[in-house]
Input
Amino acid sequence: MTLKIISPDEVLYQGEAKAVTLPGTMGAFTVLNNHASLVSTLVAGKLSFTDASGAVQTREISGGVADVDSNVVSVCLY
Output
């Protein structure tokens, strides 16, 4: 699936991901390939993802919004 992490100033990451874990308002959740469509608000916490090479990357975020649709995960950070 494609992951896009966008801040107000720049695109922080755009590329393939095998799994994405996000700090949702109701608790952390993981998105895998072919996940159902969803929109969720995000709270401060740890965003992590496994990239195409299998490496795990982690970022601390202060909040935002995530949109999952058709194997594209778009994360807009505050």
